[in-house]
Design goal:
Chain lengths: 280, 285
């Protein structure tokens, strides 16, 4: 297999159709009244919110903008509003700074210098807001994790990834950009550097040490059972870099699984209790 | 002149490919849908209505499968046979079959019923257990290919992944099948394989092949539909829509097999000794 950007090409019309159908089908089967999307203003959440609006109608989609003072970037709010306007759904802005400060102040062992632990509080707090709105308004939460970040565990466990459905989780970041382009997401949103928004100046590509164009091909190779030597050789990157990504992928599996326990009885939740998601 | 027990066969029949979505785990709803579709097909003069794999229950039923399994013939088969009787059609559908001799040994089966009642069943031989599929976790594999004498000609039954193994279709043909029916529950990422293999199986066996796939979304799997009837020369005689419910109909005249069978005589040229060799090498793989 030749690892070039062409392997990531898909039929984007078909992808758009399938994702919209998936959202609509789940929405209808859940008997919910709408879909809540935590809308950061980044490409993933903007794309998911737009697809949700296209799938079920903008009047049934609610975007939650949840900025806080440390990571607040005016352009993100601007982009979120642009998408809401273009795809005709309501977006509500709530400053979560005071909620976060209440958390920080109430945790006896809180350490302001531990930016990852602190950042995870932000992601989990946003999740609480999304689920409160969903519960209160009888809606479902639509997540916007992509495949690149999900595979390498670049997300907060029980935080930003928590959702009822994640319609673009099988698309790598560079593929999300293509889909975004196809459905008319503004160029300035597509080309904006990605950030999880956990601390000031956080940049996904800088933190990961690799551009998404390259990372996605490494992950594609791993997905297709290629050996790290072969991936490194083809992409002209050091084998240690590919090995590092592979390790990161394997060692973050705990973040992608739910409810691990030890087997004690006949059938066990999360292991061999296998039920359909929408049983009759 | 026909003797007692002989089945008088029609040369020309009308087939309906009933591409439906199923309500997961709800046999009553699915049977109700079968009844409506069969009645509609009958109004168009259809003789044979074909539904997808596991159309009685839906495909991704997981552990609920044990509550849904039934012996064949059994309660659901009887209900569908009643539909066949009322509509004067033959019906093929898929269901979870419970072995009569055990309490939880089940098969992924295709059932053929007609106006006179139950005709036969086929138990899926090749059970996919890779990627998103977990059939061997639940099902026991079948051990026998099947082709049934009916008033609509000799009909061979295969199920979905069986089509990847040419010997299954070939055996139904060697048993005399003029029409090979493949019922399926194939998710979208496999479409290119099935579109090639349905044509190949029809051509290499010089037989008609009816492929009927599920549609709808079950646990994130999107079944792509695209049901089709392929002639013995590989020509697609009718094709259903992708991704949505559809009912398409087509006339089949078995006389059309003859010119193809003489033009590309794959059955005449068959070399049985190669199968012995295949067995030896398959065991050593």
């Amino acid at each position: 297999m030749e690892l070039t950007s062409s392997v990531l090409n898909l039929d984007w019309v078909e992808v758009e159709t399938k994702v919209k159908r998936f959202i609509k089908d789940y929405f209808e089967k859940s008997n919910a009244k709408g879909i809540v999307v935590s809308l950061s203003g980044g490409i993933d959440s903007c794309t998911v919110a737009a697809l949700s609006a296209l799938a079920i109608g903008g009047d049934k989609v609610l975007g939650l903008m949840l900025p806080e003072k440390e990571t607040h970037r005016p352009q993100d709010v601007k982009h979120a509003k642009l998408i809401a306007k273009k795809f005709n759904f309501k977006a509500v802005k709530i400053d979560i700074t005071s909620t976060l400060e209440a958390f920080y102040n109430s945790i006896p062992i809180f350490d302001n210098t531990e930016k990852l632990c602190k950042g995870n509080i932000k992601a989990r707090t946003r999740m609480i807001y999304a689920y409160y709105y969903a519960n209160r308004l009888d809606m479902i939460v639509c997540g916007s994790s992509d495949k690149s970040e999900t595979m390498i565990g670049y997300f907060t466990k029980w935080g930003d990834v928590a959702a009822d459905i994640s319609p673009i989780m099988d698309l790598y970041k560079t593929q999300v950009r293509k889909l975004a382009q196809r459905i008319g997401i503004q160029k300035e949103i597509i080309t904006k550097p990605s950030s999880p928004g956990l601390w000031t100046g956080q940049s996904a590509e800088r933190e990961l040490g690799i551009k998404y164009e390259k990372l996605d091909l490494v992950l594609y190779g791993l997905e297709h059972f290629m050996k790290t030597e072969e991936i490194a050789k083809q992409l002209h990157v050091k084998k240690e870099v590919v090995d590092g990504i592979r390790r990161r992928w394997l060692f973050t599996e705990h973040k992608r699984r739910m409810l691990l326990t030890t087997k004690l009885q006949y059938r066990t939740v999360g292991t061999d209790f296998r039920l359909p998601r929408n049983p009759c | 002149m026909l003797n007692e027990g002989d089945v008088k066969m029609k040369e020309e029949i009308r087939i309906a490919l009933a591409q439906i979505s199923c309500k997961l785990g709800d046999k009553n709803v699915n049977i109700d849908k079968m009844q409506k579709v069969a009645s509609k097909a009958k109004r168009h003069g259809v003789d044979l209505v074909i539904f997808p794999e596991l159309s009685l229950t839906g495909y991704v039923v997981r552990d609920q499968i044990y509550e849904l399994a039934e012996i064949i013939p059994g309660p659901s088969t009887t209900v569908v046979a009643d539909i066949a009787k009322k509509t004067k059609t033959h019906i093929i559908f898929g269901m979870v079959e419970l072995s009569e001799k055990t309490q939880a040994t089940i098969y992924n089966s295709a059932v053929l019923v007609g106006p006179e009642g139950f005709i036969g069943k086929y138990r899926k031989i090749y059970l996919p257990t890779h990627s998103v599929f977990e059939e061997k976790r639940y099902f026991r594999q079948g051990y026998q290919t099947e082709a049934f004498d009916t008033p609509l000609g000799k009909i061979g039954l295969i199920i979905c992944y069986d089509i990847f193994f040419p010997e299954v279709s070939r055996l139904t043909r060697l048993k005399g099948a003029q029409l090979i029916v493949c019922i399926s529950a194939s998710p979208a990422t496999r479409r290119t394989f099935f579109e090639a293999l349905t044509v190949a199986r029809a051509m290499e066996n010089t037989a008609f092949l009816a492929y009927v796939n599920l549609v709808g979304i079950e646990d994130g799997l999107q079944f792509w539909g695209g049901s089709r009837l392929v002639g013995p020369n590989g020509k697609i005689l009718v094709q259903a829509k992708y991704d949505e419910e559809d009912l398409v109909m087509c006339d089949v005249n078995y006389i059309d097999i003859r010119p193809v069978e003489t033009f590309v005589p794959t059955l005449k040229d068959l070399r049985p000794e190669l199968f012995d060799e295949m067995k030896i090498y398959a065991e050593k793989l």
